[in-house]
Each structure stands twice: as C-alpha cells, then as structure tokens.
Design a protein that fits this description.
Number of helices of chain A: 15
Number of strands of chain B: 0
CATH class of the largest domain in chain A: Mainly Alpha
Number of domains of chain A: 2
Structural class of chain B: mainly alpha
Largest sheet of chain A: none
CATH superfamily of the largest domain in chain A: MetI-like
Distance between the termini of chain A: 32 Å
CATH topology of the largest domain in chain A: MetI-like fold
Distance between the termini of chain B: 38 Å
Helix content of chain B: over 70%
Oligomer: heterodimer
Order of helices and strands of chain A: HHHHHHHHHHHHHHH
Number of domains of chain B: 2
Largest interface: A-B, 101 and 99 residues
Number of helices of chain B: 16
Helix content of chain A: over 70%
Shape of chain A: globular
Radius of gyration of chain A: 25 Å
CATH class of the largest domain in chain B: Mainly Alpha
Radius of gyration of chain B: 26 Å
Number of strands of chain A: 0
Amino acid sequence: MAGKNKVKVRMSEMAKREERWAWLFIAPPFIGFMCFMAYPIVFALIVSMSRWTGINSLWGNIVGLRNYIEILQDAKFWQSMGTTLIYMIGIPIGMILGIIIAMGLNRNLPGKRLLTTMYYVPVVSSLVAVSILWAWVFNYDYGLLNGIWKIITGQHGPNWLGDEKMIKISMIIFMVWKGLGGTIILYLAGLQNIPRDYYEAAEIDGASGWEKFRNITLPLLSPVTFYVLITSLIGGFQVFVEVQVMASNGGPNYSAATVVFYLYEKAFKNGQLGYGSAIAVILAIIIFAITALNFWGQNKWVNTDI
Amino acid sequence: MAEKKKKANSNAMYKTDKVVSSKEKAFNIFVFILLLLLAFTMVFPLIYMVLTSFMTKNQILSGRLTLIPDPVLIGKYSEVLSKGQFISGIFNTVKVEIPVLIVGGFTSSLAAFAFAKLKFRGKDQFFLALLATIMIPFAVVMIPQYVLFTKLGWTNSLAPLIIPGLFGNVSMIFFLRQNLYSIPTELMEAAKLDGCTYFGTYWRIFLPLMKGALGTQLMLWFMGIWNDYLAPTIFLRSEANWTLQVVIRSFNSYYAIQSDYALIMAASVIAMIPTLLLFFIFQRMIIESIAISGIK
C-alpha cells in the first residue's frame, strides 16, 4: 500500500492524464445510463404517485400513494399476478427436462452437436414469429396439436387458447419449448466442468448411478441451477409478447394476462401513466428482491468448491 | 464391489471407459434414440411452419391433418415480399441495426477497454452503476422512456430505437471486459513506452485483439435488435416506421381473420431466416458465450 502511494505521487501527472482519458472512454455508456435508466426510474417513482395521463399536468395531479393502495385492491392486478406466477410452473419443468437432456448429451453420443443445435433453435428464433407459429399450432379447428389429437383419439381436441384453464397450460407448454434449449446449454456446460475423477472415486466406493447423480452431479450443478432459476424468475415476471400475440385481448376472462400485459394496457391503451408506473415500480421491487436473493443465496446454497 | 475395487487398483478404470460393455452400449443407443425423438419434437413445429407456408388454403382448412403440401404453393412468399409494409419493415430494422451496431460496438468496446486496462478513480462504482442497468427490466422504464421520447419528438422516427443504442450495451461491456482481462496488461505498458496515446492503444492494439469476442457480442446484439418487439410497439407511432417484428405481428392479426395462414407463416419464416442463418454459421461461438454466462 505504501509503495503504491509513492508511485502515485511520482506518476501523478501521467496518472491524471490516464484518468481523464478513462473517464472520457466510459462517458458514453455512463451518459446513456443516466438518460435512459437512472432518470426514467426517478421519473417513474414520481409519476407512480400521480394521476398523470400525459395530457393533464403531472404536478397538479399528485395523489401520493393512492395508486398503490388501489392496485392492492385491484382484482385484475391480482389476477394477472396470479397468472404470471402460474406460468412459472414451467420453470421447474424446464429445469428437470434440461438436466435430463443435458446428461444424455454429455454421454458424447454421435451427433451431439446436431442435437444441441436442434434443441437450441427455438431460443434464437424470433419470439413474435414463434408465438404466431404456436397460435397456429394451438388453433382449435385446424391446428397441428388438434390434428394429431384427432388421429390418436378420434375426437376433437381441447380448445387450447379458448378456455381459461387450457390457455394457461398452452402458454406453459410454449414457454418450456422456447426456453429449454438455453437451460440445456447451461447444464451441459456445467456437467462438462465436473471433474471425471469424482465419478471414478464414487465408482470405487460402489456408488450406484442414482447415488452419483444425487451426491455429485446435482450438488456440483447447483451454481447452474441457481443461475437458471434466478434468470427464469426475473424473465418470468416480464412475460408479455407471447400473451399479446396469442391472446391479444388477454384471453378468455383475462385469464392469460400477465403483470406486464396489464401494465401495458393500463399505460398505453388507457393512458393511465400514473397507475401503470405504480405497477412498474411494484414489478421493479419484486425483481430487485429476486436479485438480492441471488446475491444472498449464492453464498448460502450454492456449492462452489470444485 | 470388491471386483470393482480390484479393477480400480490395477488402473483398469480408464480402460472400462473406452471399452464400453454391451449393456452400456444398448443404453447409449436407447438414450440416443430418446434424445433424437425429443429434438425432433422440438423442431417439428418449426418444420410444420415451413410446410404450412407452402400449402393452399383448401389444404390448410380441410379439417384433416396433412403435412406434405399438395400442391406445393410458392406464391405466398412472393406475395409477402411484394407487400410494401413487409419490405419497409425489413428496411426499418436494418436502419436500426447498422448505426447501433457500428457506433454502439465502438462505444462499448472503448468503455470495456477503459474498465479493464486503465486506472482511474471510481472505476468500481461506475461499473456497478452500469451493471445495475442489466438488472432493471425494460418494463419498469418503458413508461418514462416513452414520455421522454415523446417530449423529444422522437416517436415519429426510428430515433427511440437507435439513439439509446449508440451509447453502448452493458452486457457487451461486461463480456468484453472479461475478455480483455485475459490479454496481458504488459502490452499496455509497452504501448505507453512507445508513446502511444490511450486511444491509439485501444484502436491499434486491443481492438484487434478482442475482434473475436466483439464479433460474437455484435452478433448476439444483432439478433436482439432483429427480434425486438416490445420497444418498437411502444415507441413507434407511425406505421411507416414499424420494424419487421411489429409488421409480422400485425400481419398475424390481419390475415388470421381471413384464415390466410400460409401467408402468415411465410412472413414469419422470412422474418426468422437472418437470425437462424447467423446461428447456424456461428453456433459454436454463440453457444459458448451463452454457456460462459452461466458459469461466471
């Protein structure tokens, strides 16, 4: 430390020059951050405490916490929040499928590359385009699923997007399909990081396949599991596009609408910018809490001693 | 068990890895078939999408599931490509991509260079502030951003999609910074001794060295912009500015009423081709960079 100080004093002119250049170099992203992130967040907090519509005056319509109180009593908000949470059933399904498929791929079978690519294609495909595709796949009269259903059972299949319960199941199927490839890639990378000697040592001790999975694979994959869980939760609270494409009015009795879908309708269809901002702030708090959980949980649950 | 131990002692474990027992071979074949079936199920909807785009309306609405287009109809693709709105959607997306990737790639890599290789006060604080950006969901800032862009008069142009991107992309800065850490800092000292300016050091030494990582990140960013839907729907007031994703979504609502599914599918297929092509060509790099994000 003392040495560092001395150097600092001696090189001060040069160090200052370096510092000025560095500040200049990081200025663009930092200015962007201030204009398009920091300022909007502060602004959202203010607007969330108003009845602003974008046309009336913002400062003349400050109502304090009234929007928040109304949201907590708003049945439609709770319905969309409930639906958002129900969609998250897809997260553990995707994780279990992901881990199984990744373990299969990790056996280094022929065509591993091609298989991985096939699983990953939905991930890189445009969300709008594949939502359009699945709206067609789920089509009640002519869709692919009911076509197959009829061949197998001889009867007409369910109304995938036209029924309050079925539309949620349909959305979950879609989300698992869209995200599975990403989960597989992450688990595969995690599996390849586990040293082979761990398994060899366990085999020497006579561990069964299940025991090896339970005591080696699963704990050593916990960082990946945790990462997938956190990012999926954060993504899960932001589901919007697939709902808007497959059920542009929110589905039967609003059964498919998510929080962001509701926020979007309030703000951009009804012009209730204040109310919409309050929903946005609640969403931000939830996501902030998950991120905090991420930092806290990483130390607590995740096994990092490889 | 005792037998296994003996095997291990004589170091035969490594051999058993290579000489696979017939039981394990059978299991491998079983796993392979299962994985293949699952993978096929994953891509089947996409194949069906392409097949539908070649079908006639009669075939699609026959009420009986058929997979092979009969007769094969190519007309829907030319019909889509002759629609002015579709073409202008492609052009608008490209008009966003080019300036954002060039300028944003430059500002991001320059900032990454400063964060990784230069010494300055507040480095960690600045970096954390930027990282916070990744954690803030777009849904949270979209209302104030919309207000801001409306006030600035940007919503009648593509500016709301272009200008924020010019300031750089934080996840790109993050990855490039990681990448620069693996490049020896001695190069920095050597450049200093040679009297190279700081910008010159970035431009002539470090930028060429991070070409690979920069390319991958730019590709991912390209895909992100290409597939973006939420921001364009909110910020673009006039239909003339609609980007491709907004156009295909409006096609979907418009032509579904007419049951013209072949046209909808053809439009969606075309909209997916650029990102899929990029993915097929550079899949190794893309998959690697995704995998790294989970391990970090």
